[in-house]
Amino acid sequence: MGIESTVEGVTKTMPIAPLILRGRIVTDHLIEVGGRGGDLIFHTPDARRFADQLPLGDPGRLADLYALSFENILDYLEALGKRLDMRSNVHLQQACRLSYLTAPTTPPIVDASYAALSAMFARNHVREMAEKTVGIRYLEGWVEEELDGLRLGVRCFGARTLHIIAGNSPMISALTIIRNAILRSDAIIKTPSNDPFTAPAIAQTMIDLDPDHPITRHLTVAYWRGGDEAFEERLYQPHNVEKIMAWGGFASVKHVTRYIQPGLELVSLDPKRSASIIGAQAFASEEGMADAAKRLATDIGAMNQVGCVNARVVYVQSGTDEEGVDRLKRFGAATYRAMLDLPQAISTKPKRYDQELKGEVDAIRLSDDWYSVIGGAEEEGAIIVSHMPDPVDFATRLGDRTANLVPIDAIAEVTAAVDAYTQTVGVYPESLKAELLNVLPLYGAQRFVTLGHAVEATLASAQDGIEPVRRMGKWIINEIRD
Amino acid sequence: MPDMDLANRAKALCDDPAAFFDHDYTAMMSIERAPLEALQLEGIRQRLAGLRGKVAMLGKLADNQGIEDIDDLNSIVPLLFEHVMYKSYPPSLLENRRFKDINLFLSKLTSMDLTGIDVSHCQSIDDWMETMDRESPLMIMHSSGTSGTMSFLPVSKKEWDKFGAALRVTFLQNFGDEPETQESGEEFHAIYPYFRHGGAGHVRMCEIYVNHICGSEERLHTAYPGRMSSDLLYMGAKIRAAQAKGQLDRLKISPALLARKAELEAIQAAMPEHLMAFFAELAETLKGKRIFFWGAQNLLYNVTKIGHEKGLKNIFSPDSVIGTGGDVKDGMVMPDDWKEQVCDFVGVDRIKMCYGMSEVLGLHNKCGAGHYHFVPWVVPFVLDPDTSKVLPREGVTTGRAAFFDLGAETRWGGFITGDEVTIHWDDPCGCGAKAVWAEDGIQRLGAKRGGDDKISCAATEGAHKDAMSFLNSFE
Predict the structure, then answer these.
(1) In chain A, which residues have their Cβ closer than 8 Å to the Cβ of B238?
(2) Closest-CA residue in chain A for B62?
(3) Of A83, A171, A274, B404, which one's alpha carbon is 20 to 30 angstroms from that of B418?
(4) Strands (E), B163-212
């Protein structure tokens, strides 16, 4: 990572997030960047000085990827996965250590995510992902189909793509690199300030593996301040990139839309929220309640609630009368206890509790006619129980292991929970899904999970209601006439 | 033995800060820090003792924190209210117009018992605000509701009056002035290019203009007669929130508001005409007069722009007083020379800048050296933005601003804001004032994250228009 190396004018202890330029590691023209939250200041090459070198100027240079078979790609990724072993990979070890200071999660969770990187590259896993999210034969060559008596060849080509990735999990860097390889695309990864080290560490491992391999040579990793208009306007042009894949918050996605023009497509993994729905069956027995509480605690607490998939507002069919609210308070207390009991690799006391959220929680703590707040005094996370069928007005700010349980009488009331921002809907019990599956997607729901499994997203399926990997490719047709 | 003199003097400061300093701004700014902080500490202790049994939320917080009394100023910080406290009721109470429950909520934030006031007939926020204005000792102030819920600050009429008296001093006088200088000139006419009445903080100020600045209703000149509809403001904010979430189709409009559609439409339709009449009045009747004009920057500038389009320049007396908040409102882009333009229109050589917020009844003037000096009845605190722990009252500290308003006697004066300030505790200011000062460039902590619920009028007019056009889609 160039960490603690001696570079002119820079102290030895200042970490560097290198710029990776198609097989080349760049550590000069450094500028200082403040880590999110102000915890870590690192150096990185000034991307503006490399603006013309970031894009793949000539799209014809993608041809080298077409000399590879899909099995060659799997070979490469498999070998890369083996090298992404935390026990031996110095780049990853350093990146992991530095990520403690930049990540929104805490060291045990960062460790667990880094430890999981290698397995993402497993041959069978990648093959399945390619098959389900694109179809390997479309990647490998022309697939002939017949349509209205016309013979049609279809093939999925790679594209020059800029990836604006999110920083809530290091796995996003790995996933982006895998997707780029199977699509035979060229990627520029723009790293976020809360994860500037993972993508360069994987890229450096790729260079160690084979600096001249086409997959190594079709990856650029850079950090610049998102929103640097002069720079972005220059880079985000159809002659430089054909697609922008944007993960992230409302502001960053909204910001990117200004560059979209004919010839430049946006694949947007929008900011999303999730909802959880718990049916009356959870209260049929003490065991059932304990089970639902434990599952809910997992969906709230996993990854310290930094993901869009995490539970935040939870509609519970406890009933809204006094007895129902008492039931919900007991359920809230059980959920809180279960959350504190989650293993460290899954959930810990948050790194730094959002002080504005704390203000909100502390305020309604005193409004105890309307809300009960369980926990939160030590900034460890809290369960807010609404006494009315009404989420808190700061629902969109919920994070750092803070969830709001809302009592309802009938499941039909939960459509209010779902809107254009909804991603995952966690449901308990499984059988309750039948009532919701064909209704909630109309309002915006994109993914149903059984309560307790919100963060175990499969990588071999649609995402956010779209097929992002298919959209990362260019679907070319050949109309064949005799 | 208790220091009776200190106790009495602190009480006098809390009861009537303007009188305590003989209505002299220079005196307010000249008290040394040590004796002032002794008075402030004693004042806070008196307020805590007096209100803890009467303001239920304060009592609860003090019990939770196990705090009975304090020995130094910073020790009060665990008992300051978060700025969101005044909207910590379930959003559906307002949505469903459950004003009885809202009064129950407010009764826990004020020493006044509001539960006896019959609000069962109130169909709208406007109804309720009017009823409360009439029948309660309060003149409630609400926020613009941009978060989807309105904050309601229960300020008593007596507190407004006390604030008004103090504002006359800080509005009109500058450090070093003889109080008589401002008082000796021609009586002011106050102008305000908005509604005369309404529940939003900036409209409530009209009351202060009448009672403490210009002295009579006839000398207050507003652009629109009647009342700014709080319901329209609230609905405008809800529409924006629903639009952003793709939920506009699910927005519920209260039948009471729909029934008032024609009335509200008429008010809206008459606004351009009223505005023209307002300008005619400025140009003809008020030409050359001594005026007082206070408002948000965009309000000052918009009036100036229209005035300039009409060819109006230097229209008022040069001893007029023009002022505004020092910060740029969210989303408002002002031209670099806006101050010069406003001065040119009004005919004065400077605009008075101040820092403050509607929830803390004290406005802090910017001095000649460009620093905001805190008025003596408002005690400032700086909290670490990451941990909310109070920072020492020495050197230079940057963080979240919190205040204790000693003038608050029916509600708790402790308030944690969403603003980031840099306070110089010990550095003497070049202007000669002794009061502790904050640097220019105060910003919202959450500004980068977009949106907040600050009470500002930048949002009110747009929200009004949105709400009307939405209402008009219901035929």
Answers:
(1) none
(2) A366
(3) A274
(4) 189-197
Q: Global pTM?
A: 0.88
DSSP-based three-state secondary structure for B60: helix
Which chain A residues have a beta carbon less than 8 Å from that of B105? Answer: 367, 369-370
Cβ contact (<8 Å) for A419 and B245?
A: yes
Which positions in chain A touch B412 (Cβ < 8 Å)?
none
Is the Cβ of A363 closer than 8 Å to some Cβ of chain B?
yes
Residues 6+ apart with CB under 8 A from B315: B282, B283, B286, B287, B288, B307, B345, B346, B347
pLDDT digits (tens, 9 = 90+) for A173-231: 999 999 999 999 999 999 988 899 999 999 999 999 999 999 999 999 999 988 888 89
pLDDT of residue B441: 83
E runs forming strands in A230-322: 243-247, 265-269, 273-278, 313-316
Query: Residue A421 is nearest to which of B81, B92, B245, comparing CB atoms?
Result: B245
The answer to whether B418 faces chain A, any CB pair under 8 Å, is: yes
B247 to chain A, any CB pair closer than 8 A? The answer is yes
Query: Residue A301 has what DSSP assignment?
Result: H
CA A76 vs. chain centroid, Å, equals 24
* CB proximity A389 to B under 8 Å: yes
pLDDT in tens, B168-178: 999 999 999 88
In A, which residues are within 8 Å of B387 by CB distance? 355
A394 touches chain B (CB under 8 A): yes
> Beta-carbon neighbour count of residue B272 at 10 Å?
9
**Closest C-alpha to A163, from A199, A126, A131, A215:** A199
CA neighbor of A104 nearest in space, from A244, A239, A248: A248
Answer for the pair A481, A150: CB distance below 8 angstroms, yes or no. yes
Question: ipTM for the complex?
Answer: 0.84
Strands across the sheet with A143-147, in order? Answer: A143-147, A150-157, A474-480
Concatenating the DSSP letter of every residue in A28-81 gives -SEEEEEPGGGS-EEEEE-GGGGTTTSS-S-GGGGGGGGGS-HHHHHHHHHHHH
**What is the distance between the alpha carbons of residues B261 and B447, in angstroms, rounded to a whole number?**
35
Structure confidence by residue, pLDDT tens digits, A333-377: 999 999 999 999 999 999 989 998 999 999 999 999 999 999 999
Q: Are strands A313-316 and A273-278 parallel, antiparallel or unpaired?
A: parallel
Write the DSSP string, A307-340. Answer: STTS--EEEE-S-SSHHHHHHHHHHHHHHHHHHH
Q: Which of B101, B51, B99 has its CA nearest to residue B76?
A: B51
CB contact under 8 A, B148 and A251: no
Q: Are A71 and A96 in contact (CB under 8 A)?
A: no
